[in-house]
Amino acid sequence: xxxxPKHLTxxxxxxxxxISAGVIGGYLLAALLHMSLVVWLPFSKEILVTSTITLFLLxxxxxxxxxxxxxxWRAWGYYFVGIIILFxxxxxxxxxxxxx
Amino acid sequence: MSKRNYNVFFxxxxxxxxxxxxxxxxxxxxxxxxxxxxEITVWEEGERINRTAKSDIDFDGMLxxxxxxxxxxxxxxxxxxxxxxxxxxxxxxxxxxxxASEKAKESHYFIxxxxxxxxxxxxxxxxxxxxxxxxxxxxxxxGYGIYIAGIVSLLFLFAIVTGVIVHxxxxxxxxxxxxxxxxxxxxxTDAHTALGTIGLPFxxxxxxxxxxxxLSIFVLAPANIIYKNDRKKLMADLRPGPEEExxxxxxQEKMPSYNDFIKQSPKWKNFxxxxxxxxxxxxxxxxxxxxxxxxDHHQITGTxxxxxxxxxxxxxxxxxxxxxxxxxxxxxITHRLHYGDFGGISLKxxxxxxxxxxxxxxxxxxxIWIEARNRxxxxxxQRLYTAGVGRTYLSICLSMLPVTALAFIFVKxxxxxxxxxxxxxxxxxxxxxxxxxxxxxxKKDNYFTNKMxxxxxxxxxxxxxxxxxxxxxxxxxxxxxxxxxxxxxxxxLWLIIASLxxxxxxxxxxxxxxxxxxxxxxx
Lengths: 100, 523
What we know:
The complex is a heterodimer. Chain A is mainly alpha-helical. Chain A has helices spanning about 10-40, 45-65, 70-95. In chain A, helix 1 (about 10-40) packs antiparallel against helix 2 and helix 1 (about 10-40) packs parallel to helix 3 (about 70-95). Chain A is elongated, with a radius of gyration of 16 Å. Chain B has two domains: about 5-45 and about 130-215 and about 345-520, no CATH class; about 55-115 and about 245-295 and about 295-325, no CATH class. Chain B has helices at about 5-35, 35-45, 60-70, 120-125, 130-135, 145-165, 170-175, 185-200, 200-215, 215-225, 230-240, 260-265, 325-340, 345-370, 380-400, 400-415, 420-445, 445-470, 475-480, 485-505, 515-520, and strands spanning about 75-80, 85-90, 110-115, 120, 270-280, 285-295, 305-310, 315-320. In chain B, helix 9 crosses helix 13. The chains are: A mainly alpha, B alpha+beta.
């Protein structure tokens, strides 16, 4: 019944990559996605309040996804690109139509 | 789902679940009792409650007395009304007047009796209800306890989602498959899936709201960046309320009656007060504020408030309770869903049972882990390690029941004997718990741990209403007659828990041990 170890990765660097991508990368993705939505969409305050719930749900989802990758560093790669895109999204939105 | 992904999710579910298991159990067990925090406090005090309407409290008398003792000039006062107690909590900020003495600049927090105006500090007024409430987010570890609870919540969310993915196909079949006579590993697995599914919405709710309460910093940090670190503006947008007023100078006019203000102000139908404030006490810009809401069966969210100039009576800000908006409602509903305080006692009992059910899901998860890892192809070291961790977890978790029951008896006997009740409750609860954990752990027998916890939990639980009757004369038949709902609730709760304990105790027979893998492959 315990998970069959032949499907699990034993390499420490792989485990580290997947967990760090999920915890750190996942949080940054979830946070930047919400920040972009706040600056680009109407109802910014409402979105901000909704993020108290949705941010944790998204974070959890992004923490699970890296485990689907065989190579955890590839997951970090995708996450890194996503983070850059979302950061630019937020930065432009904040610069062109700052809420405050 | 591919075989690989299944195994990966399975492992993720197991690891995250095992890491948090006993912490999560403590959170849910203490949290189950924390639902009845106010009832426990009333039960502990043991005094008859008069249910004075909040608008009938003599605030002017209370303020005069406090002014003599603490010099209220220039302070902000904030009253909070408990649910049913004859007490209000009062926070007074330090005086904002720059000429005030050092003593007047100190802030205070009291619990004040509404009849005698006697004040008690937080540590003096501490109760077992407060202790269990704080224990359920590890606040006894000052500073970082709440973050541990937050991380546990997040991992709980992770374990729930991966658990649903792993068990998805078997959810329905396992629900009907349940056979308590099967091997223990089967029993625990089936129960874990079936009860986990039944409790799923409830558990998801607590994982998400719990993560938010403990780790709100992760939501506030992005918000702060958007608001360019203007915290004042952020708070004003997210938690609209009476604005801060700077102190100007003391007023020469006579202090207007606060009683009159409270009696006149709530002109809305069915409005229930839950808080009151005075800003800039005795200043020219002194404001009187009341806050409240409509009864739950009228409207579940939506607070109302009025801010008036204390001297002219001019309305400065007003919010009608039916006029609720999304921003405030989301935050209110998050709290109310977590605290389960929107449907009276019956809803709290459902919450209580679901919390205990979650405790069972956690324990059964640990038991699957122990049972599944005692196999011939594993080294003796691995097997000893698993068994040891399992025994430690079970002694920590299961001993909470008798220890909590004993703590109820302890606070009843010790009420009024300790000046600083907080230290007394800390010492008693943690030392007894430690002793139980040590005994159970050294006995090295999960069957014994389980049976003993149930038996002692049942006996001590049965004594809770009896001790209450002996010490304060609040026998159940008397309190029912006097309509002291809070005291009756706690007594009945323990009677129900005790009878459940005895029922389960006598239905567990030693023969069950043969169904364990430890009977097949003994260590």
